[in-house]
Amino acid sequence: MEIHHNDQIIKFNIEYKKRKKIKIQIDQGRRITVLAPKGTKEEQIIDSVKSKATLILEKLKSMEKKTKDIVENKYEDGDKLLYLGKYYIMNIIMDNNIEKNMIDFNNEEFTITLKAYDKDTIKKLVKRFYKKQCKKVILKRIKEYDNHFNKKIKNIEIIESKNKWGSCNTNGKLDFNWRLIMAPIEIIDYVVVHEMCHLAHMNHLKSFWRLLGKIIPDYKKRSEWLQYYGNRLNI
């Protein structure tokens, strides 16, 4: 679906959810999704998008600028990798005698050992390392905050997603985006606690935000960081 505003086109998808208000989301790929309560008329959704059209276009423009500011990693010796909010030098070593390609991190720098240089192979190694470390870190952070919640987590999964950092279902299963491992630990904590709060409140009503604010008082600041810098958490 689309609307026209000041000679510009705003395209968006609609998802009907069990919620009370219309919400407009823009993901990292600048795709727009309107979350609407079940039974909401299409005209009402269009009116809501039109009323926020200027803000939507400003947000899209800002996201486009931030994307242009990102310098693409060439994955060459001496390049840097983002890990837990900091950049670390990446050393690439060629060794025909190794049995398999390897990646190692010693808390100061990354060392990647390859049989032969290949950019895609390096990216796969980095991604595999990030996913593994993401689960380890998130499990530790959950343990840190577990005493705030009565309902226990049934399962945790590290996922690939372009439009969400985490999710929680009614069965107590939590999903987290592997890209979080590139964010500072306080941002990871925000996402972890946000999803854990859904164990008590499967919504975003006042009771949910009260609980989140009690545990993470500056959650708004952390959320804003993720909105502004989230598109940089990529390889």
Can you tell me about this structure?
The mean pLDDT is 93. The protein is α/β, with parallel strands linked by helices and 235 residues long. The chain folds into two domains: 2-69, no CATH class; 80-232, Zincin-like (2-Layer Sandwich), CATH 3.30.2010. The chain has six helices and twelve strands. The protein has a four-stranded mixed beta sheet with strand order 6-7-9-8, covered by helices on one side. This is YgjP-like metallopeptidase domain-containing protein. Residues 20-227 form the YgjP-like metallopeptidase domain. InterPro entries: UTP_pyrophosphatase-like, YgjP-like_metallopeptidase.
Task: Write a concise synopsis of the structure shown.
This protein has helices spanning 42-51, 53-69, 119-145, 185-197, 206-215, 219-229, and strands at residues 2-5, 8-11, 13-17, 23-26, 32-37, 80-83, 86-94, 102-105, 109-114, 155-159, 166-168, 173-177.
Keywords:
single chain; 235 residues; alpha/beta; Zincin-like; 4-stranded mixed β-sheet; 3-stranded mixed β-sheet; 6 helices; 12 strands; 37% helix
SSE order and pairing:
Elements lengths: L1 E4 L2 E4 L1 E5 L5 E4 L5 E6 L4 H10 L1 H17 L10 E4 L2 E9 L7 E4 L3 E6 L4 H27 L9 E5 L6 E3 L4 E5 L7 H13 L8 H10 L3 H11 L6
Parallel strand pairs: 3-5, 7-9, 10-12
Antiparallel strand pairs: 1-2, 4-5, 6-7, 8-9, 11-12
Helix pairs in contact: 3-4, 4-6
Structural class, from secondary structure content?
alpha/beta
Spatial strand sequence of the major β-sheet? 6-7-9-8
Give helix % range: 25-40%
Order of helices and strands: EEEEEHHEEEEHEEEHHH
Mean of all residue-level pLDDT scores = 93
Q: Biggest β-sheet: count, sense, barrel? A: 4 strands, mixed
CATH superfamily label of the largest domain: Metalloproteases ("zincins"), catalytic domain
CATH topology of the largest domain: Zincin-like
β-strand amount: 25-35%
Number of continuous helical runs: 6
Distance from first to last alpha carbon: 31 Å
Judging from the principal axes of the Cα atoms, what is the shape?
globular
Whole-angstrom Rg: 20 Å
Task: Report the count of strand segments.
Answer: 12
CATH class of the largest domain: Alpha Beta
Low-confidence stretches: none
Count of folded domains: 2
CATH architecture of the largest domain: 2-Layer Sandwich
